[in-house]
Amino acid sequence: MIIVMKPTATKDNLNNVVKKLETLGLRAHLSEGEEVTIVGVIGDKKTIANLEMNMMEGVEKTIRITEKYKMVSRNFHPQNTIINVGDIEIGGDELVVMAGPCSVESLDQLREAARAVKSAGAKFLRGGAFKPRTSPYDFQGLGEEGLKLLRQAADENDLKVITEVVDKDDIALIENYSDVIQVGARNMQNFQMLKALGKSKKPVLLKRGLSATISEWLNAAEYIMTGGNEQVIFCERGIRTFETFTRNTLDLSAVAAIKELSHLPIIVDPSHGTGRWQMVKPMARAAVAAGCDGLIIEVHPNPEIALSDGDQSLKPKNFARLMEELKAIAEIMGRKI
Fold first, then answer.
1. pTM beyond cutoff 0.85
2. What single DSSP character describes residue 166?
């Protein structure tokens, strides 16, 4: 349920509503806009079903919510949410680009990649220290040593860090090195991990599962938010279909769907979404035109010898050209890079 307060409602009116909800064992989630305040009601379904609030002073109306996700819903929070990572805003006027190699391989590799993506306009250095691979024989990452190298290369170039967590027991470790914690597609419905991330103070980038519906994706975010961490960023990275030409099928309609259903920002990963470096540029351009809030792109100084995902990684020169093209599209969309 959501409770819509009258434009003339006072602070006392609002406080009385919140107190009544808390007395009944319910939780109030406030969304205070310029013209109207909305109170989202969270808690026992039976209690909410029998809740009568229309007669309280300052209440304009109540609306029953049928979706299972609440805090993620735009009904609960009509205004767009902006995630602040230091002085960087994700979900604001500026499109935020995260770029770097799929896997952390060496300090020299990271330094070269970091310098390249920084000079082109990226704000985050991405790289995997723990790599969940389909085959157990593939490169699995450098672990904590990789996190240290990632942080060092980012700091040297005034970049933020985003990296993936693959085990909930590693969350505290990754918090020490990363500015944003990434949940990969394979872990989108790892509910124990999502609950643990709900207690984190770091923003979470939640990638869409391999075959997840929009509703399943939204509910996964709800797990994080109900735990107390409301800094969630969606990431569309392609879903599995019958198509074999591309690694996945990049679903750019998901950008419009998330914008309609949720207040949280969404970025797009055209690298995993296609699996082919030649397709990264056109899909990145299309993602910006579709209204995304940012991109996460794989960039490697020498993709031909990359230990993972070289086929979908851009070389620094190609990435720089892409960033120039994206600036023009962003301007048309009323955004900037």
1. yes
2. -
